[in-house]
Design a protein that fits this description.
The complex is a heterodimer. Chain A contains six helices and nine strands. By secondary structure, chain A is α/β, with parallel strands linked by helices. The two termini of chain A are 26 Å apart. Chain B is an alpha/beta fold. Chain B has a domain of 179 residues: P-loop containing nucleotide triphosphate hydrolases (Rossmann fold), CATH 3.40.50.300. The relative contact order of chain B is 0.15. The chains are: A alpha/beta, B alpha/beta. At the A-B interface, helix 4, helix 5 and helix 6 of A face helix 6 and helix 8 of B.
Amino acid sequence: MLIGNQLAFRYPRHEWILRDFDIAIEPGEVVGLSAPSGFGKTTLSKLLAGYLTPLKGRIILDNAPLPTRGYSPVQMIFQNPELAVNPRWRIHKILAENQPPDRLLLNALSIHPSWLDRYPHELSGGELQRIAVARVLNPATRYLIADEMTAMLDANTQALIWQTVLEYARSQNLGLLVISHETALIKRLCDRSIHLA
Amino acid sequence: MLLVQDLSITFTMYDRGLAQKQLAVITQLDLDVQAGEVVAVVGASGSGKSLLAHAILGILPDNAQVSGTILFKGEPLTPHRCRDLRGKSIALIPQSIGYLDPLMQVGRQVHRTAQLSGLSQPAAKAAVDRTFHRYGLAARVKRLYPFQLSGGMARRVLVSTAVVSQAELVIADEPTPGLHPDIVTETLNHLRELASEGKGVILITHDIEAALQIADRVAVFYAGTTVEIAQAQDFPSGKIRHPYTQALWRALPQNEFIPIPGSQPNPEALPLGCLFSDRCSWVTPECQSDRPPFLQVRGAPVRCIHADR
């Protein structure tokens, strides 16, 4: 289980972004989160994935603190894939950063083999987001935080990515946190949802 | 007001060494916008939506070859006329505050836009005050820098830049992604209001739901071509014609959420026939030999020879 306990965070000399925040996600569970902009949703994602350290409170993964070295079992995918990949690497090298994804997964995401030899700027946003998703769907990932993962994408690509992620999560017992402004998407995907206002 | 016919754009790029390659990024694209109308342009990333906007504004890079027709109020939009009209008769509402000058107070930027569109100093000041008031922006907001604006305020400032210019044609490029639903609705309502005042509005978006909230007609782009120009009410009433339009509609989370596999063809190697043929379940040999022309089916143009089935 992934637990955020009494989390609080702020940047130096700024106001609190999050205070006394509790959240728990079970393996295999799909949890939705929606809140107005400025509510600290992205800060929460970064805390859970280990990009930021909470000023108060703790992140607990399976009864132990979140590991601070090596590949984090809590992975995060956000809105802009072009900021999540090395622009000077070809796609196959980006995918090989972890255990390279198998052919079935690439097929499920409709990733064309010809893309693997290209650079990130040679793919469209929707194509590159599929690469970012393929990269994290591997056995070392236990929880996935999708922060507006498909907000920039057309309806077909959005459904294609989510169907693949949901199926993978079900078969591998992956926990998911879905952060989105889209009520219909959260309703479609999630077992339960948290709405902050 | 605006008529785009059979527009094609090809980029010449260097491949390896001095070898060049041709990228056909827009092929046979059509669109028309009347005064008082909101036309949404919907499609995946890489379908040519933003390039169309750049072509209308005359800001394509030098390695682009353009063919086809763009008429604004009946006259061809030559590069020279583009320069005269943009920012005056044709205005862009950009995607994000990234398009504003980060080191200049927003009031001064909107004021400068008004002046560049031909208003005198006092008239520009009055126009800025009137526009800020209209969009509920307090006078103190004029003195803020772009990074100090909240998401909703930023949207209103960006709309203001287009409104002070008195433009007749407004192009809004992806104004809604990742925004709270209330701010999305507010932004869309502002665009609808501009159309009610007699302007022509092009709403470029990947979000069908946003488009359907305010558009009169929806042009669906795929791989740089217009596959269909439907009435907005054709979507909920099940009248949409092209298999790709139908796939987009089916894929919405509140509908079936079922995607079609595959992706848009590579612009370096477009198929000979219909650009959608490799993903289409209706495909026949005729589809693969020739590009389908625009056909009138159930009262709207569609680029599919099987659309009347």
